[in-house]
């Protein structure tokens, strides 16, 4: 099963980045690939078991995500349990860690391409680069929003 990890440094504090990440239903506040996001009816707002729907920019594709691991102040991992993505068994982790100048943001995704052999052949050439670009956009959006939200650490 392919696994992709991207990282991005930010001058924002880990607490500021985590505040944005932990507003689980509002990932669209910094994720430029989404048209909108919201908590699913009956979902808790944060933590293990929280569920959201993310509608992609095109307006017709969406995913349903559920938190399967929550490490307060550090990371959460989600599993996709519904939607229109051309993959199965999707999990993603979003994490923040302290850095000398602010924070390091990390996103890791695992998935299984659909369409059998054809999907496995297309995955490294088309799907993986597209997913990596999308993940970079998510972390760039998070870093930009975090830096704009609160003052950043100053270099010593």
**Helical element count?**
2
| Strand tally | 7
Please bin the fraction of helical residues: 25-40%
Overall mean pLDDT: 89
Find the structural class using helix and strand composition. Answer: alpha+beta
Range of strand content = 35-45%
* Uncertain spans: none
**Largest sheet at a glance?**
7 strands, antiparallel
Which of globular, elongated, flat, extended, rod-shaped describes the shape? Answer: globular
Number of self-contained structural domains: 1
Instruction: State the separation between the terminal residues, measured CA to CA.
Output: 43 Å
What would you say this structure looks like, in words?
- With about 160 residues, the chain is an alpha+beta fold.
- The protein has a single domain (about 5-150), classed as Alpha-D-Glucose-1,6-Bisphosphate, Chain A, domain 4, CATH 3.30.530.20.
- The protein is built from two helices and seven strands.
- The protein has helices at about 15-20, 115-150, and strands at about 5-10, 35-40, 50-55, 60-70, 75-85, 85-100, 100-115.
- The chain has a seven-stranded antiparallel β-sheet.
- The longest helix is centred in the last third of the chain and has 34 residues, at about 115-150.
- It is globular and about 45 Å long.
